[in-house]
Amino acid sequence: xxxxxxxxxxxxxxxxxxxxxxxxxxxxxxxxxxxxxxxxxxxxxxxxxxxxxxxxxxxxxxxxxxxxxxxxxxxxxxxxxxxxxxxxxxxxxxxxxxxxxxxxxxxxxxxxxxxxxxxxxxxxxxxxxxxxxxxxxxxxxxxxxxxxxxxxxxxxxxxxxxxxxxxxxxxxxxxxxxxxxxxxxxxxxxxxxxxxxxxxxxxxxxxxxxxxxxxxxxxxxxxxxxxxxxxxxxxxxxxxxxxxxxxxxxxxxxxxxxxxxxxxxxxxxxxxxxxxxxxxxxxxxxxxxxxxxxxxxxxxxxxxxxxxxxxxxxxxx
Amino acid sequence: xxxxxxxxxxxxxxxxxxxxxxxxxxxxxxxxxxxxxxxxxxxxxxxxxxxxxxxxxxxxxxxxxxxxxxxxxxxxxxxxxxxxxxxxxxxxxxxxxxxxxxxxxxxxxxxxxxxxxxxxxxxxxxxxxxxxxxxxxxxxxxxxxxxxxxxxxxxxxxxxxxxxxxxxxxxxxxxxxxxxxxxxxxxxxxxxxxxxxxxxxxxxxxxxxxxxxxxxxxxxxxxxxxxxxxxxxxxxxxxxxxxxxxxxxxxxxxxxxxxxxxxxxxxxxxxxxxxxxxxxxxxxxxxxxxxxxxxxxxxxxxxxxxxxxxxxxxxxxxxxxxxxxxxxxx
Lengths: 317, 330
Hints:
Shape of chain A: elongated
Helix content of chain A: 40-55%
Radius of gyration of chain A: 21 Å
Strand order of the largest sheet of chain B: 1-2
CATH architecture of chain B: Orthogonal Bundle
Helix content of chain B: over 70%
Oligomer: heterodimer
Structural class of chain B: mainly alpha
Strand order of the largest sheet of chain A: 7-6-8-9-10-12-13
C-alpha cells in the first residue's frame, strides 16, 4: 500500500462525511446492517460479530436485513434504510456494480456508509473494511510449499503432488484464493494433480476428493478454498484410509469450524478470513461521534495450526 | 398383429432406461481416467454419492405416479439434518429417540403438503413450493442459522467440543469388507419399500389409478384424497431418511443442506422414464435413473472436467439419454 495515497484518501473522507451531531430518532443511534446473504456460516458470523460488538454500546440500536443472495432485494433493502432515515448504514454488498447506486444514494442523503467485505464502485461511501483474499491465498501457498519441501520424498528431489478444491470460481474470493496460492507455487517442485470446483459445498468436496483419490495413488496435500471443503476432503480420505498420508489445509478459520478441525487434528492449518464485524462497529461509533476514519481498512488475518490454535493463532507475516 | 416377444421387450420403459444407463457406462469405459473407472471403489463411491438423491427420488416417484410433484424434499433434508444433529449432538438424546423424532417430523411436513393438495385442492407445485420455503425457514430457525456441529458455543462465547455420537459413524461407514456404504444400503432399502408399495399393495394400484385418470379412479371407488395424502407423507418420510444420511455423512446438521436436491430427485425419476404426467412408471426405472445420474457425475468428476463444461455436458447427456429412451417408442 502507498501510505501517502491512503492518507490523502482519509483526508477526502474527512471532508465528505459530515456526521450528524445527534440521533435522528429518539436518543439512540439507529444503525442499519444490510447483509447480502445469511446462507453462509461466515456471514452469520459477521452479523454475530457486529451484534456482539454493539452489546457494549447501548447508545446504538441495530437493524439487520438479509437480502437472501438477491442483488435487487438488497438494493430495495438499502432504499428502505434510506427512507427510514437510519443514522448510519453498514453494507456487505452482494456485487459491486448494481449496488453502487443505492449506496451512493444513501451517502448523498447524508447517511455515513461503511462497506464491508466486498467493494462498491466509486467513492460515495465513508469507509471500506475488508480482508485480502489474494494475500491469504498467498500465505496458504507459502505455508504449503514450506511444509511440502520438508517431506523426505521432496527433499530427495521428488515433486510434491497436491489437490486443489476451489470455491465457486465465478466469485472473486475463489479467484483470489486461487491466484494468491498459485503465485506461491511458482518455480516450486509442487504439482497440482487434481483440481475441482466445490462451489464452497462440503458434500461436493467429499465427492470430488473421492475422485481425486481414485485417480491419484499419491497425494501429499489438499488445499481447499474453505474449511468445510477441506473437512469434506478429509472425510473422503478417511473413508479410503488415506487421511494419515495427506496434509489438509483450508481457509476461513471460523471458531466453530476451521479452528475446531485444526484442534481435532483433521486440518493442519486454517487461514482466517476475518469478518470485520467488530471493526465496523468501532468505526461506526467513531463516525457517529464525528471522528475521522480512514477511507480504507485492510484487515489483518491470523492462521491457526495445531500448535497455535489454543492460543488464538498467529498473525500472517 | 402381435410383435415378437423380443421386439416388445425392446420397447419397454425398463429396457430404454437400461439403454440410457448403458450409454453412460460406455462413456465411462472410454473416458476411464487411467483405469480409475474399472476399480470397484469408484463404483462404491458413486453409489454412496447418489444415495441421498436416490432416497429422495423414491418418494418423488410415488408422488409423480400419483400425478403430483414434491418440491419440498430438498428443504426436508435440511430440516431433518439440522434436527437430527441437534437432538443427538446438542441435546444428547439417544439415537433411537432422535431417529424416531426426525422421521416423524419429515413425515409431518409431507402430510402437511399432502393435506394442502388433497383436502384444499392446492396445486401440488404451489403447495410443495410453499412447503419448500417454509421448511427451509424452519431449518434455519431451529439451528439459529448456524451449522449444528460438534462445536457448541458456551455462554461466554468460547466453544466446547462434543464427541460425535456413534450413530453418525454407524450410518457413514461401509460393510461387506469395505465394499458397500451403509447409506447405499439405506437407499436400496427405500427402493425395496417403494417397490412393495407400488407393486404389491392395493395402495400402489390406487396411486397409479389416481395419477392415470383421477375422475375414473374416483368413480371406481379409489379414495383419492387419502391416496394423495399418503404419497406426500411417504415422500416426507424418505426426505427425513435422506436428511439423516446427509447429517451423518457431513458429521453436522447444515441448515442449507439439500438445496436444489429436489431438482436432482426429479431428474433421476424422469431420466429413468417415469412419466411426469402421472399414472405410469415404477421404482425400477428410478433406480436405473439414479445409476445413470450417479455415473454421469462420477465420470465427469474422475476426469476432472471443469465446471462450465461439466454443466454443459450434463445437460447434453441428459437430453441424449432421454432421446435414446424415446427411440422405438415412435
